[in-house]
Design goal:
364 residues; alpha/beta; 7-stranded parallel β-sheet; 14 helices; 41% helix
């Protein structure tokens, strides 16, 4: 089987990591992978480094006919069997390519839990005849997307997975305490994600403010970067919390520093699934999170973590306080989370995705 992946994003975030894992696992199962990606993007560099057959294209806009035609030509030249598209921009290009004569069946991945836009172009894109499956990374996304499809039976759930081997040697080392010259007894509470609107770091800051009244020596880590970094830093400063909240920027040593956290605090307003939560599970870090999107499919309240409604700093603070002060709760949820993590490996994700490919190819 030969599969073409369309990856149009400029940056490297959770979705791109999932595509990388998928390609790696599919290769091990004997599938030939090809990529059409945005020229100069992080994924373009990844393909070059990993020697993955690829074509770098402009992806200038959703109706970029030049990119769509080159996708068609590349597909034909490499005798590709199906096309898997991994973002909204790539989705549009796949449809244009199909209209221009690229007859490959299209598999669409959907990783976000907000509704499909209610306009003519979006309705056309999602109900286009060439799309044979919409692969959703959580049941919540499947529920939301199905409402916009004329054929909701095309929606299937394939949960995202993580590379469990990345965390096999992860353990508490005191690294963050040393690096930032912190009191060894200071509890560390943090999150690892892009500093983007849907992550709702305003609620993270508000929760930190409340927690500091109960745990005055606590230190909060925002690990990652993103478009709202300056805004969130200004908000923390406005509240006089700059000494208690550390912005590390993007880090490549997450498996080493994640186990340092006493609690992972996820305050997202929307979330497809939340693979950084799975990373925390793999490091035996207890998780307190909002009920956004697909999060409750992995954070099962009182079993694998503690849940709170979105935009509820008081409830989130109380849940974090419970984890910090109640060893029985902490041990129970970390044990439950460790067991659950085994189901969410990148190998399982790839196997389930491959089953979707095979099913589609049998029907065309």
């Amino acid at each position: 089987m030969r599969v073409l992946h369309l990856v149009s994003e400029k940056t490297w975030r959770g979705g791109e990591q999932q595509v990388a894992y998928l390609i790696e696992e599919l290769q091990q199962q004997g599938i030939e992978n090809f990529v059409c990606c945005r020229k100069g993007s992080a994924f373009h560099r990844f393909c070059q480094q990993q020697h993955i057959p690829h074509l770098a294209l402009p992806f200038a806009n959703e109706l970029d006919v030049v990119t769509a035609l080159r996708v068609k030509t590349y597909s034909k030249r490499n005798q590709v069997d199906l096309m898997h598209v991994h973002s909204g921009h790539a989705h549009a290009i796949s449809v244009v390519s199909h209209v221009l004569g690229n007859t490959l069946p299209i598999i669409l991945s959907r990783r976000v839990d907000f509704p499909v836009k209610n306009n003519a172009l979006s309705r056309l894109k999602y109900n286009y005849k060439g799309i044979k499956r919409v692969v959703c990374v959580s049941d919540k996304i499947k529920e939301v997307v199905s409402q916009s499809l004329q054929h909701p039976e095309l929606c299937v759930t394939v949960h995202s997975g993580i590379d469990l081997s990345r965390f096999e040697s992860s353990s508490k080392s005191g690294e963050l305490h040393r690096e930032f010259n912190l009191n060894p007894a200071a509890p560390l509470i943090g999150n690892v994600s892009a500093i983007a609107p849907h992550k709702d770091y305003y609620t993270f800051i508000d929760t930190a403010e409340l927690l500091l009244k109960l745990h005055p020596n606590a230190v909060f880590f925002i690990i990652g970067d993103g478009p709202l970094r300056q805004e969130i830093q200004a908000y923390a400063q406005q509240k006089g919390l700059q000494k208690h909240i550390i912005f590390t920027g993007f880090r490549k040593d997450v498996p080493q520093i994640l186990p340092e956290l006493d609690v992972m605090l996820v305050t997202s307003e929307t979330e497809g699934l939340g693979t950084t939560i799975l990373d925390a599970f793999a490091c035996r870090v207890p998780v307190v999170a909002t009920m956004a999107g697909g999060i409750p499919e992995i954070v099962r309240n009182e079993i694998t973590g503690l849940l709170a409604p979105i935009k509820s700093p008081a409830i989130l603070a109380e849940k974090v306080h419970q984890v910090l002060t109640n060893p029985a709760i902490r041990d129970r949820i970390t044990q439950g989370a460790t067991q659950l993590t085994q189901e969410f490996s990148k190998k399982n994700t790839a196997s389930r995705t491959l089953a979707v490919y095979k099913e589609v190819l049998q029907q065309v």
